[in-house]
Automatic annotation (TrEMBL):
Keywords carried by this UniProt record: Membrane, Transmembrane, Transmembrane helix
The protein's name in its UniProt record: DMT transporter permease
Domain of life: Bacteria
Residue ranges annotated for the EamA domain, each copy included: 24-160
Keyword Isomerase: no
Keyword NAD: no
Segments passing through the bilayer: 49-76, 88-107, 114-137, 143-167, 179-200, 212-234, 246-270, 276-295
Length: 321
């Protein structure tokens, strides 16, 4: 893994003949939208099948979609199947396991408070992914990128503040609420996942980003399905069967999960993970629409300021290009 070293924000010397340098922006926006839909589907699954089964649904039911994408992309590329190696699989395994843990923590966080704040807690990953990218990949952010990440993270903090002073005191007295703990853990695991998938892309510099996205998601979700599916089959087969009974929601979660993951992986094959995950905070705006239109949740004044700071960070991360 140590061999995958670049200086941020230089792009890897990849063969990307049909993708402009800015292509990661619409790809990331699409991935964030798909992830918002996936989160909404998973939230309804949690109440029916439990947290772990809902987590499995995005991986297991996403496998067929990932397989179809890989088959089509590989055929259209006109190239042989990439020569994967141990280093690549090591990075993918790191990203896959971390993503599995992050998803479970995210679902737990969303159970503690309203939908948008549960998602927002996980977005502490932005600063963490910059830290982990510097440590593992030697990708150091520019000053503009760092300021954009800081503004966006501050916005997330404002989104996460308790609604009442009494609640804030309770959090302080207790050290941290369960939502805070699950959110921070989710952010850390998502950050490690992003670094793992970015590292996998850097380990295969001669493969086109869309192929890396498809293959990466296929390998990762296969491993995730085996690990979590095996655990549930042995420990909670009833929950596993429930995902099959509510197959419509499970397929929606799987399809949107595969689409989102393919987008994240492809974008991170083009651009450093910290940039991609910062722009991915647009998911907070998408989640706001979901919480207002579907779950009928109201937004506080402090949360509006938080969203404004997140928007400032998104603009900043795009302006550095």
């Amino acid at each position: 893994m140590a061999a995958c070293v670049l200086r941020y924000p230089r792009r890897p010397t990849m063969d990307i003949p049909t993708l402009p340098a800015w292509a990661w922006i619409p790809i990331t926006l699409s991935a964030a939208l798909a992830q918002t839909i996936r989160n909404a589907a998973q939230r309804s699954l949690v109440s029916q099948a439990g947290t772990l089964a809902a987590t499995l649904a995005r991986f297991l039911y996403g496998l067929p979609f990932a397989l179809v994408f890989v088959a089509v992309a590989q055929q259209l590329s006109g190239r042989p199947v990439p020569a994967f190696h141990a280093g690549y699989f090591g990075w993918v395994a790191m990203g896959a396991v971390a993503q599995l843990l992050a998803t479970a923590c995210l679902l737990k966080a969303m159970q503690q408070r309203n939908f948008i704040v549960g998602v927002a807690f996980s977005k502490t990953e932005v600063l963490q992914v910059a830290l982990f990218s510097t440590f593992f990949l030697h990708e150091v952010p520019t000053w503009l990128a760092a300021l954009a990440m800081l503004a966006a993270t501050l916005g997330v903090v404002l989104l996460s503040l308790p609604a009442r002073a009494g609640a804030a005191g309770g959090v302080a007295a207790g050290g941290a609420s369960q939502a805070v703990l699950y959110g921070i853990a989710s952010g850390a695991c998502f950050a490690l996942s992003a670094v793992g998938f970015r590292g996998a892309a850097l380990a295969m510099p001669d493969v086109a980003p869309w192929l890396l996205g498809g293959w990466g998601v296929l390998w990762a979700q296969l491993l995730q399905s085996l690990l979590l599916g095996g655990w549930l089959a042995a420990r909670d087969p009833v929950a596993l069967a429930t995902t099959a009974r509510v197959w419509r929601v499970s397929i929606l979660a799987g399809a949107m999960g595969a689409l989102a993951s393919t987008g994240w992986f492809t974008a991170m094959a083009i651009q450093p993970a910290a940039d991609v995950r910062t722009l991915g905070l647009v998911e907070v705006f998408f989640s706001l629409l979901v919480s207002r239109r579907i779950f009928r949740e109201k937004l506080r004044a402090g949360e509006r300021w938080g969203l404004a700071l997140v928007l400032l960070g998104l603009v900043g991360i795009c302006l550095q290009l």
